[in-house]
Design a protein that fits this description.
The protein is α+β, with helices and mostly antiparallel strands. It contains eleven helices and six strands. Strands 1-2-3-4-5-6 form a six-stranded antiparallel beta sheet, with no helix packed on it. β2 and β3 form a beta hairpin. α2 packs across α3 and α2 packs across α4. The longest helix has 43 residues.
């Protein structure tokens, strides 16, 4: 009996071990199935790799394009810095500008501003330069002879233009405006570049039926004098507030926070009138110092998001002084698209091998680039001075050059 009990206990232990192994085997099978499923999804990520769709020819042209573009920026901006230093050195010494401020506050923001401003020029020069060099070395002829169509040849050009356009838009819309604030403060302090720091007799609608008036406003101290605020309902005055001084709270967590000193509030309720006065009161008024004082180039210190918000706010108030802001907003988008247009024109003009080298192409490229920049300036002036639609005025150079690009593209294969 004792031996039988021992045998049964061994059998039970073997059965338990078998069941544990079987359970572990099932869990392992489920885990392996889960891993195989996710590995299958991970294999799909290879289709998101952009380099999968680029062959050696594409990578070669993209590297040439981007490399020449960066080289042209470094070359021309370096020359611009030399001329700017020569022009402003006397002012820097007169106003005792420190070297750290000159380098990091002025030129650190000077370089990206002008590089982005003349980006169409750099794109055109880069395309003309390296494409005409490839054509002179019979590389373009070899590509076309190998069965690569001109349309297919443009693919790496357009990819490079897309990279440059995205970088230019991000810089112009979100990075450079922040730097412009620092650069303009430096210019006002060390280059004696006058900025509008005050305004008089300001009246604006800060909300539906709410009219604010400031007799004098000083933008340096963010302080207004002779303030009044009238609120109307159904064309009837229901509240009138006056204050000898009103100060903008720039350190408050909330925007539109003002402090009124020596205030008086008259509230009209039918035939009754309530008067409340005091030495100081904090209030929320839907206006900011930027709405009261306009200085030259102020639109260049706002990001695209801030520009859109400012334009919408001013239009809701019924203000018509937003044309410069609308021009700046649309110009940032239009300038980015110019990379595609000028790339097509440059590639179409310089892809054919001709006698005389690349001098002719560079001359044409410079002429077309400067003409484009000139048209941008003229069209923006028409929008501001002649009441032309800002969006249409800004896009006119792109529309004209798109027609030129299409004509050059159609003639290039021939």
């Amino acid at each position: 009996m004792i031996n039988q009990d021992k045998d049964f206990s061994k059998i039970r232990e073997h059965v338990k071990k078998y069941r544990r192994r079987r359970a572990l085997s099932r869990k392992w099978s489920k885990f392996c199935a889960f891993v195989r499923k996710w590995l299958g999804w991970l294999r799909c990520l290879k289709y998101l790799n952009p380099f999968r769709y680029l062959n050696r020819l594409d990578r070669y042209i993209i590297a040439k394009f981007i490399g020449t573009y960066i080289y042209s920026i470094i070359l021309i901006i370096s020359i611009s810095i030399v001329f700017d230093v020569n022009e402003n050195l006397a002012k820097f010494s007169t106003f005792n500008a420190p070297l750290k401020a000159i380098v990091f506050d002025y030129y650190a923001n000077f370089v990206p501003y002008f590089a982005n401003l003349f980006s169409p020029l750099f794109v055109f020069i880069a395309v003309i330069f390296f494409t005409s060099k490839m054509a002179g070395n019979s590389e373009v002829i070899a590509m076309l002879a190998a069965g690569v169509s001109f349309k297919r040849l443009l693919r790496p050009y357009l990819i490079s233009a897309a990279i440059i356009a995205i970088v230019n838009f991000c810089l112009g819309a979100y990075v450079i405006p922040k730097g412009n604030i620092v650069k303009m403060d430096f210019e006002a302090k060390y280059k004696d570049k006058k900025r509008t720091l005050s305004a008089a007799n300001i009246q604006l609608m800060v909300g539906p039926g709410v009219i604010a008036y400031i007799q004098q406003f000083d933008n340096r101290s963010k302080t207004g004098y002779g303030f009044s605020l009238d609120k109307f309902e159904n064309k009837k005055l229901v509240s009138h507030m006056t204050a000898s001084t009103i100060r903008y709270d720039s350190i408050s967590e909330s925007r539109n926070h003002w402090t009124a000193l020596n205030y008086k509030i008259r509230t009209l309720k039918g035939l009754r009138e309530e008067i409340k006065s005091g030495a100081q009161i904090d209030t929320m008024i839907l206006m900011e110092p930027m709405d009261l004082v306009f200085s030259e180039g102020q639109q260049e210190t706002l990001t695209s998001t801030e520009l859109a918000q400012y334009i919408n706010k001013q239009i809701e108030r019924g203000s018509t002084n937003v044309v410069q802001y609308e021009v700046e907003y649309h110009k940032r988008i239009a300038t980015s698209f110019a990379s595609f247009i000028l790339t097509v024109i440059g590639a179409s003009l310089s892809s054919r091998k001709r006698k005389g080298g690349m001098g002719l192409y560079l001359g044409i490229g410079l002429a077309l680039s400067f003409t484009y920049i000139l048209l941008q300036t003229i069209s923006a002036t028409f929008a501001i001075q002649a009441d032309a639609p800002p969006m249409l005025a800004v896009w006119i150079p792109n529309i004209l050059y798109t027609i030129i690009a299409y004509f050059c593209y159609r003639q290039a294969p021939n």
